[in-house]
Design brief:
This protein starts with 6 loop residues before the first helix and ends in an 8-residue tail after the last helix. 44% of the residues lie in helices and 13% in strands. It is of the alpha/beta class. The strands form 2 sheets. Strands 3-5-4-6-7-8 form a 6-stranded mixed beta sheet, with helices on both faces. It has a two-stranded antiparallel sheet with strand order 1-2. The longest helix has 21 residues.
Length: 302
């Protein structure tokens, strides 16, 4: 059985293979018009000068500027350190550097996989989460018809009413939303932390469950069914090229049909490179307690 590789490990292997092929191929005739930086020669098919250490420095996992002879090298380095955005990636002629292009393609593929992926039943069973579905039908329809991800199916409604406690203080719901990978990556950290934080502030929870194909406003339909004081929805965010595993926590005091978006409180960017999942779960308990004390949420919460 093959071991699972990370994106960085996969890119490193591809780059190592490219380096072998470049090293074994005849060197092209020198071009008198201009001297290319080593990164540009790599991507345009020429040989890379320097030792193995130099190659590893050029294509290693450390984020660094590839801009040759930068007029503001210190400023560019500060920008790169302050954001995960693609800054200072440079180019090879009119093309991106090979390594940057591979990372871009990997990140894009991860984003697509998040949308079309699914949460494993093993993970849901581990936390005793039963599953209901919205009227989303399938992923293609889900993307075109957000309204259908806000309504639980008739079968799902019956299951919720049969298995869930009515009028709990806090109802927790998990949904894949636009990123199944977000649930897979973060649930094991954020969910136990959330339960501990709610227990720590003296709040009880109802019967948690998983909604497949859910949108944020599905919490309004669930609110009508179970009438909780506060509903907490942990849902996968729209994936991007920085992270395909980002989760949001939407919290609302007494959500019902017709609830406006400004009445929801959200804690977003919950993932390893953003708001730490364990910290997010711990902070949610404090927020929910304030909602119950003040009997409100969203922009009206102090």
């Amino acid at each position: 059985m093959h071991s699972k590789l990370s994106v960085d490990q996969l890119v490193d292997r591809v780059m190592a293979e490219l380096e072998k092929r470049i090293a074994s191929s005849p060197s092209p005739s020198p071009t008198p018009s201009r001297s290319l930086p080593s990164e540009e020669r790599e991507s345009s098919g020429g040989s890379v000068e320097g030792s193995t250490e130099a190659v590893e420095e050029a294509f290693g996992g450390i984020r660094m500027s590839h801009v040759p002879s930068s007029k503001w090298e210190e400023g560019v380095s500060e920008l790169i350190a302050s954001t995960p955005a693609r800054i200072g990636v440079w180019r090879a002629g009119t093309r991106p550097l090979t390594r940057e292009w591979l990372h871009f393609r990997c990140d894009h593929a991860a984003a697509v996989d998040s949308i079309y992926g699914s949460v494993s039943q093993k993970l849901l069973d581990e936390y005793k989460l039963f599953t209901v579905e919205t009227c989303f039908v399938n992923t293609e329809n889900y993307l075109k018809r957000p309204d259908m991800g806000r309504i639980i199916t008739e079968k799902g409604v019956r299951v919720i009413l049969e298995r869930c406690e009515r009028r709990p203080q806090v109802q927790i719901v998990i949904s894949d939303g636009l990123s199944a990978n977000a649930v897979t990556a973060n649930l094991a950290d954020v969910y136990p932390s959330l339960l501990d934080s709610l227990s720590g502030v003296g709040l009880s929870t109802g019967t948690p469950f998983f909604v497949r194909g859910g949108r944020v406003a599905v919490m309004d339909h669930i609110g009508d069914l179970l009438e909780p004081e506060v509903l907490v929805l942990l849902i996968g965010e729209r994936p991007g090229l920085v992270s395909s595993k980002s989760m949001s926590a939407y919290m609302c005091y007494r959500p019902r049909a017709g609830t406006v978006e400004s009445s929801r409180t959200v804690l977003s960017n919950i993932h390893a490179g953003g708001t730490a999942p364990v910290e997010a779960g711990a902070h949610m308990g404090t927020i929910v307690r304030k909602m119950i004390e003040q009997r409100t949420s969203g922009v009206h919460l102090e």
